[in-house]
Amino acid sequence: MPNCTIGNNCNIGQNVVISPEVVLGNNVKVQNNVSIYTGVICEDDVFLGPSMVFTNVINPRSAVNRRGQYAKTIVKKGVSIGANATIVCGNDLGEYCFIGAGTVVTKYVPPYALIVGNPGKQIGWISEYGHRLHFDKNGMAICEESGEKYLLENNQMVDLKGQYEGIKKEVLQNLNEVLDTGAFINGPLVKQFANDMESYLDAKIVIPCANGTDALQIAMMALGLKSGDEVIVPAFTYVATAEVIALLQLTPVMVDVDPDTFNLTADIVEKAITPKTKLIVPVHLYGQCAEMEGIMKLAEKHNIWVVEDNAQAIGADYSFSDGRKVKSGVIGHIGCTSFYPSKNLGAYGDGGAIFTNDEELGKKIQMIANHGQSARYYHDYIGCNSRLDSMQAAVLIPKLKRLDQYAKSRNQVADYYDNAFKGVKELQTPKRFENSTHVFHQYTLRVLNGKRDELKKYLDEKGIPNMIYYPVPLYDQKAFKSPVNDHLKLENTEILCQQVISLPIHTEMNEEQMEY
């Protein structure tokens, strides 16, 4: 064992091979017939089970001398490796992970992971005392022996921290510019971001604002709608869309959605149009567009406004039958989006924007977003105070440059999931609408066997983040209870609220996370 380091209180069994330059920390237990080759570093409290082996090269050949290719393998504190396991060199093992008997480890193992099989796959998490951890919906688990609490650091649907690493330099540079100039409100970076968005969307006017809900409210205020005017909105969506309609004393007319795309279709909308209908609000749910060509034809025929809720589909392309491709958000008369941090284009706080190609509408929207001012201290409209601050623009500028790449990464995750679930008859994977690209704000499955909640419980116990978007139809929300909605039951909406479940999908996901 030349040039080896062996710590205090180590226990080494019979027929153990320890090659030169191996490092064993304190209290390492090495069982019989273990082989530890050059390049292995075991930290304190590691357990190496009988007949397990570390390799020292990836592709050994008797006739080829590969000593110069020895790869380092670090076994962190508290790791346990079962009998007859093989650790392929160069794959570090995280703190307190547990490698089952006979497992072949071919890639990095995260801390506290439980790995079994050939090749090794993660099947759960384990405590420092060696007990399986069962996480609740908040990502919390308690060791049954020690009572220690464990919190999943990555218990999230979106990895914003990982994404930040790729834009950190630009973000910090922009933030320093804001701090150095003191231009916190309506500064140069806000104007730059608006210009960048106009170019990206091919939109004449982009008005940044404080959040996505404000964007919807300001857009509707600009249309001159009156109390009692009807607004068609999907019943299967987030509350903000209908909430704004009600706040403006308009009448939300809640309609069903297509069960495969989760979005409005022209056929569904047409059945809900009455002489009182003044506005249609298609919500591009989960990352792809509603059937906008048909909806725009209906709007033109009946002289109805269209405001797109584009909070979940920024960057998606819509293809018209004449070959035109248009970005979501600039198909209708007005488009609205949110820059909530978890969105595909997310700030590090709240933010939103309004888009339009109608210059007259754009000027009115700009005024309403700034207290209705046409000039300082001259107010032409009742307005509000809704602005995107420069600190958020500092974050959004570099993110916008990468938005298409983010969508590509999300599609790669979605393709992986699609292949993984192929042949599972109880699961329906997301359907792509042929006229729209999909940017996969969410990857949403339908669980067809009535066991959605059972699946959710299983995922929670495994520490796998998941969400249900959305568990209750809008018409069943207490806030929207009225004589009109009391007996409303929409078939597809009712089914989807019982079936849908969304899995983690973000730009930084690696194959190991997807596989787990």
TrEMBL record:
<dbReference type="Pfam" id="PF01041">
    <property type="entry name" value="DegT_DnrJ_EryC1"/>
</dbReference>
<protein>
    <submittedName>
        <fullName>Uncharacterized protein</fullName>
    </submittedName>
</protein>
<dbReference type="GO" id="GO:0008483">
    <property type="term" value="F:transaminase activity"/>
</dbReference>
<comment type="similarity">
    <text>Belongs to the DegT/DnrJ/EryC1 family.</text>
</comment>
<keyword id="KW-0663">Pyridoxal phosphate</keyword>
<dbReference type="InterPro" id="IPR015421">
    <property type="entry name" value="PyrdxlP-dep_Trfase_major"/>
</dbReference>
<dbReference type="InterPro" id="IPR015422">
    <property type="entry name" value="PyrdxlP-dep_Trfase_small"/>
</dbReference>
<dbReference type="InterPro" id="IPR000653">
    <property type="entry name" value="DegT/StrS_aminotransferase"/>
</dbReference>
<dbReference type="Pfam" id="PF14602">
    <property type="entry name" value="Hexapep_2"/>
</dbReference>
<dbReference type="GO" id="GO:0030170">
    <property type="term" value="F:pyridoxal phosphate binding"/>
</dbReference>
<dbReference type="InterPro" id="IPR015424">
    <property type="entry name" value="PyrdxlP-dep_Trfase"/>
</dbReference>
<dbReference type="InterPro" id="IPR001451">
    <property type="entry name" value="Hexapep"/>
</dbReference>
<dbReference type="GO" id="GO:0000271">
    <property type="term" value="P:polysaccharide biosynthetic process"/>
</dbReference>
<dbReference type="InterPro" id="IPR011004">
    <property type="entry name" value="Trimer_LpxA-like_sf"/>
</dbReference>
